[in-house]
Amino acid sequence: MLSSRTRVLAIIGDPIEHSLTPRIQNAAWRALNGDTAEEAGFVNVAFRVSSTALAGAVHGARALGLLGLMVTIPHKEAAVALCDELDESARLMGACNLLHFRADGKTIGYSTDGWAAVKSLAEEGVSVRDARVTILGGGGAARSLALTFAREGASHIVLLNRTVERAQSVADEVLLLGIETRVLPLNDDSLRQTLPNTDLLVNATSVGMHPREDESPVPPDALHSRLAVYDIVYNPLQTRLLRDARTAGAKTVDGLGMLIYTNVRAAQICAGHELSASVMREEALRALRV
Ligand SMILES: NC(=O)c1ccc[n+]([C@@H]2O[C@H](COP(=O)([O-])OP(=O)(O)OC[C@H]3O[C@@H](n4cnc5c(N)ncnc54)[C@H](OP(=O)(O)O)[C@@H]3O)[C@@H](O)[C@H]2O)c1
To answer: Per the count of CB atoms within 10 A, which of 90, 136, 239, 270 is most buried?
Structure first.
């Protein structure tokens, strides 16, 4: 139950109405708190915040005593300037998806997408260390994963994107971490050329996402059974790419784990509590009607 002692974590973005975070995180808080009037408890709420209102929203949230703000598109880069200090992850990414309002009055920025992806892969028995990685995409998610996987000791990283220049700028940053990298346009030929020498294929494009659920960025004949295929799209959970990969005998990992561990990390950092990943997964499956 909400009370005058309830502590608040929030998520901000624009748009935000599609976010599963409040629903799954609150299910986990209820499981942790017990839903009793005696419990001070924690709650997560979502706010739609436009770019022009971002600074005011962050300062206001801090003034109201929120524990922290989870930050999503389009504010991840702009949020950096509103932090007093950046954790190493946020410094590496030049972006943050979590602001922790510390008790000493300081705002600390974190980037937890990469950590969440590595954690959800590890949970499924997929290790990034020494893996030959191919990432589809050149946006914010591709960048977080490429830089994190480089830090985690991937053997090399190939980036394939529709807009080659975007992937090239990610590759330039990966190279600075001392990891071999290559950029190709995203098409059937480059995929057929690259995937025979790939251990881990990651879809970090929005191809296959609702409502274009019949689309896949990869032709089925380029997939093979020695691959682990990770699709960070989670709506739908079983994307066309993951279905084709399973048919080809590949190991598959869906995108829900990344979302869940982003929530786990926010609760660890801002509230010092360990939320249940399995409670959040069950609630997300209900929300996605799987
Ligand atoms: N599981 C999670 O927790 C989680 C977390 C973050 C993101 N995501 C998902 O990851 C995806 C990418 O997110 P983002 O933040 O990186 O977005 P973004 O910065 O907007 O990047 C979008 C990417 O998708 C590519 N793309 C879009 N439409 C395409 C098409 N028709 N054909 C080929 N490529 C296309 C873009 O290519 P161009 O560069 O050529 O435009 C770009 O590489 C989204 O679906 C998002 O929901 C999931």
So the answer is: 239
pTM, rounded to two decimals: 0.94
Asked if 78 and 86 touch (Cβ cutoff 8 Å), the reply is: no
Measured CA to CA, the distance from residue 274 to residue 277 in angstroms comes to 9
**Structural tokens at position 29:** 């808080």
Distance CA 120, CA 118 (A): 6
Task: Supply the residue whose CA is at minimum distance from atom 24 of ligand 1.
Answer: 205
Domains and CATH numbers, the chain: 7-111+258-287 (3.40.50.10860), 114-254 (3.40.50.720)
How would you write the pLDDT of the chain (290 residues) with one tens digit per residue?
788 999 999 999 999 999 999 999 999 999 987 654 446 699 999 999 999 999 999 999 999 999 999 999 999 999 999 999 999 999 999 999 999 999 999 999 999 999 999 999 999 999 999 999 999 999 999 999 999 999 999 999 999 999 999 999 999 999 999 999 999 999 999 999 999 999 999 999 999 999 999 999 999 999 999 999 999 999 999 999 999 999 999 999 999 999 999 999 999 999 999 999 999 999 999 999 87
Q: Which of 230, 174, 165 is nearest to 198 (CA)?
A: 230
Residue among 96, 97, 206 to mutate when testing ligand 1 (max atoms within 8 A of CB): 206
Query: Nearest to residue 136, comparing CAs of 233, 210, 254, 221?
Result: 233
Ligand 1 pocket: which residues have CB below 6 Å?
Answer: 73, 113, 137-142, 161-163, 166, 186, 204-207, 209, 232-234, 255, 258-259, 262
218 vs 215: CA distance, rounded Å: 9
